[in-house]
Amino acid sequence: MIDLSQNQLQGHLPRSLAYCTELEYLDVGSNQINDTDPFWLGTLQQLKILVLHSNGFHGAIRSPETNYTFPNLRIIDLSHNYFSGNLPVGYFAQWDAMKSVGAKNLKYLDGHSVNYSMLITIKGVELEYNKIQDGLTVIDFSCNRFEGDIPEILGNLEGLHALNLSNNAFTGPIPQGQQFGTFPNTSFEDNQGLCGKPLSKICGDSDISTPPPSTFEENQGPKLFFEFGWKVVVMGYGCGFVFGIVIGHIVTTRKQDWLIKIFGKKQHQTRISRVNRRVNRRK
């Protein structure tokens, strides 16, 4: 049993762990380990519990190099890391301990004189197991960057009690039947590309539809209409103002000429009348 959880361990996972051939329990969760696929640990034939959650493990998980990898594994927690790519289908076919239903007689996993205990977090609910039943089987791959389809072979793990694939980038329909019928929707939520039971999203629904107006568009709509109307008014007012000036100038100019002609003619006629009166008086 090796429990190094909740420390500040950094760097890579020591490859020398592969020599611990009798190791059954390895927990390095909640550290600062920055490493790639650690599935070289699959050579540990007796390993039953592997906890790597809340570290900096990253990259895709490679296919198994042998046909006998993690045969006794019952609990694996890779949550809250940065694993990516498709799920490692080849491993699920070799996890024999998860294929059988738990023993009828109640037994607990122990390291000879020490009982195994651990915290298992599923969908934000942290469960503390002071003793781990021999038949308990858990797969927690949540909060990573896994993608692609969920392999149907997971349904062959008939002894699997808890499956958590939430908060990833899986796509396509969720496999139905077999063990999949025992998992709640929380096992698959927060994967936008997934559909089918137990999720409410039905496969085949057309995603091509008129999207509702965004909050920005809704808030800006009346305002844009008002601004557009105001611009039209201003433009109309400006054009009318210029047009009025031009017409006024033309009218005023022509009016001056018209006044000059009229009043000039009247003044000329008045002068002629006065001259004629004077001439008549002298006579």
From TrEMBL:
Source domain of life = Eukaryota
Membrane topology according to the record: Single-pass type I membrane protein
Task: List where the protein spans the membrane.
Answer: 228-251
Asked if Hydrolase is a keyword of the record, the answer is: no
InterPro entries according to UniProt: Leu-rich_rpt, LRR_dom_sf
Subcellular location per UniProt equals: Cell membrane
Coiled coil feature spans: none
Q: Which UniProt keywords apply?
A: Cell membrane, Glycoprotein, Leucine-rich repeat, Membrane, Receptor, Repeat, Transmembrane, Transmembrane helix
Query: Per the record, GO CC terms?
Result: plasma membrane
User: Family assignment?
Assistant: Belongs to the RLP family.
- Tell me the protein's name: Receptor-like protein 34
Q: Give the originating organism.
A: Juglans regia (English walnut)
